[in-house]
Amino acid sequence: MVNIDWWTLGFQLVNLGILIWLLGRFFWRPLSAIIAGRQNDVARRLDALAEKEKQVEAERVALSAARTGIAGERAEVLRKADVEAQAGRVATLSRAQQDAAALQEATRQTLAREETETRTAWGDQAASLAVDIARQILSATGISSEAVRDTLFARLEQAVTALPLRERTQLQAGFILMAAVAPEDADRRKYETRLAGILGTQPVITWTTDPTLIEGFAVITPSLSVASSWKADLDHIRDNLTHARS
Fold first, then answer.
1. Which of 17, 124, 126, 191 is most open to solvent, judged by the fewest CB atoms within 10 Å of its CB?
2. Is 73 in the same domain as 177?
3. Between β-strands 175-179 and 205-209, what pairing exists: parallel, antiparallel or unpaired?
């Protein structure tokens, strides 16, 4: 049989109660407060970490979208660059073809122009040569008969008569009468009288000679020239030959 010392047990219970009260008041409450504070701090950190994770995830999603966008933009830039390069190649080829066609046409026109100029030059030379030969033949024959001169002077009279009134009036003041060969005094007076009859007055006539006329006459003023000579006829023939080819 166990003997219980109730006083000792009671005293110990009292001590235990005091110890529990002391522990509860001075240990468990601060410890609980500390633990609660640590728990709250851990919870805040966990919340902050979760928020950070959300931000990181959002940034990752945004970065992924940005990369996708960049990839799309890069593909679009490459596509546009390829299209522009292709268009540039087509434009360059087109310009090259146009330049080649223009050069070919310019060359053709140049060759045609040079051929025409060459033909014209040769034709002019041939006409001039033919006229020169005729002039030399006429000069060498020494033909100077009265009938030839009268015929040429009659043509000069017709040319003067056909002049407008204003120009015939100018001749009344005087002019140079050129002859291929200096006529005799009697012939001079005859020619002057015939011209005076056309002009209605006796003008002042200055005689001169020019062998290049071959045969014939020319009325000359500072603003007028009327000729009836073999030289004028040959020049007219040469002009007709030249114009007939053009």
1. 17
2. no
3. parallel
CA distance 107 to 114: 10
- Show the tokens assigned to 86: 């292709």
**pTM of the model as a whole:** 0.44
What is the DSSP code string of 144-156? --HHHHHHHHHHH
- Host domain of residue 230: 142-245
d(CA 64, CA 17): 65
- Provide the residue type at 109 as one letter: Q
Contact 246, 120 (CB under 8 A): yes
Helical ranges in the chain per DSSP H: 6-23, 29-141, 146-161, 165-171, 185-199, 230-245
pLDDT tens digits for range 76-99: 777 887 777 777 777 777 787 787
| 173 and 87 housed in the same domain | no
Residue 146 shares a structural domain with residue 90: no
Nearest-angstrom CA–CA distance, 198 and 200? 6
CA distance 176 to 171: 10
Chain segment 16-74, per-residue pLDDT in tens: 788 777 777 776 677 677 777 777 877 788 777 778 878 877 877 777 777 777 777 77
